[in-house]
Amino acid sequence: MNWLLALVAIGVGLALWIHYTFEGESLLRNLWREWRLGRRSLNEWDREWQHSTSKSDVVVSLTTIPSRMGVVDTALKGLMDQSRPPKRIYLNVPEWSKRENCVYEVPEHLTNLSSLVVRRCEDWGPATKVIPTLLAEDADQLIMVVDDDRIYPRNTLAAIEQQAASHPDKALGCAGWVVPKDFLDRPTTILSNLLKQPPAPIRGHRTRKPVEIDVLLGVFGYALRPRFFDLGRLTDFSDTPRAAFLVDDVRTSALCRVAKFVVPIRCLSFLPLRRRRQYTESALAHLNRGDGDLESRNNTKAIQHFRDLWRVGGNNLQ
Question: 71, 93, 145, 317: least buried by Cβ within 10 Å?
């Protein structure tokens, strides 16, 4: 019996290690963090933010869609509960959603928080999570861009802030990828993940020093400064194909005028267990995958549209 229990323990430990190696998620730690965040209301976490004496100089920027307005609290709690809390959180919210074809109704409790500013703005599609904040902040302000359906590890902002102090002229992310030489996006396999073959993601938990990439992955968070962009060009979508409009990570990364790096970080963001199905069903990724053909994937169309702007992959791999 003892040896059987030992084998089970070894098997569970191995499974957890494999999952961490590939995904950067510490399952037990994540379960504890989600449970801990859920024990308090958003107002209570906001009061914790107010009383914090270790706030960072980073502002956080995100957006959401109308169908998620009622569940964005979880992500906001994780941002307030950082070891170095943000200076401010900006939730960019248009009046009307082009994606869901309906109005945005902002819950009253979101408008009375000290840590959060609900910014009414134009609907820039998925890029609404970053463009309004880039336009509003000072040129050198460090902005951490995140997704509305993730919980970020408690040390995320502290790690990014520390790396930004050493690399003030670089865009930094917790994960990213290199454009493949054939300009075709494709699903990640076990082998491409292990070998970090483009376009498989390069994750910060598997790097010991900054690694230059082409595309920052917003799902895990990335940091930018307004001076990294020609803001006029960033807000001009007149020559942007529909596919590139929908994959904002690719477009924003292509138009970023400085080098982009994945930096070392202990763990990556994770999808909350509670309401996981709701988050998954409303994810834009379903639309971006296309019909199964690599040429139909929106990432493929976008990286081909911006083919001359990639610094690491693409034509540089020939």
Answer: 317
Overall average pLDDT of the 258-279 stretch: 88
Structural domain of 22 = 2-317
Q: What single string gives the DSSP state of each residue in 120-148? A: EE---GGGGGTHHHHHHS-TT--EEE--T
Backbone angles phi, psi at 180, to 5 degrees: -70, 160
Q: Can you give the pLDDT at residue 15?
A: 76
The predicted structure's pLDDT at residue 291: 65
Query: pLDDT tens-digit profile of 162-206?
Result: 999 999 999 999 999 999 999 999 998 888 988 889 999 999 999
**From residue 68, how far is each of 74, 166, 243 by CA, in Å?**
11, 36, 23
Which residues does residue 220 pair with via DSSP β-bridges, in sequence order?
A: none
Per-residue pLDDT reduced to its tens digit, 133-155: 999 999 999 999 999 999 999 99
CB-facing half-sphere around the CA of 239: CA atoms within 13 A: 5
The CATH number that applies at residue 32 is 3.90.550.10
Q: What are phi and psi of 19, to 5 degrees?
A: -60, -40
The structure tokens listed for 100 are: 């869901």
Residues 6+ apart with CB under 8 A from 228: 171, 256, 257, 258
Residues 185 and 299: beta-carbon distance below 8 Å = yes
Q: Are 78 and 152 in contact (CB under 8 A)?
A: yes
Number of domains in the chain: 1
Looking at residue 296, its pLDDT comes to: 86
φ and ψ at residue 223, rounded to 5 degrees: -120, 135
83 contact partners, CB below 8 Å, separation of at least 6 = 54, 154, 155, 157, 158
* Residue 86: burial class (beta carbons within 10 Å; 0-12, 13-18, 19+): buried
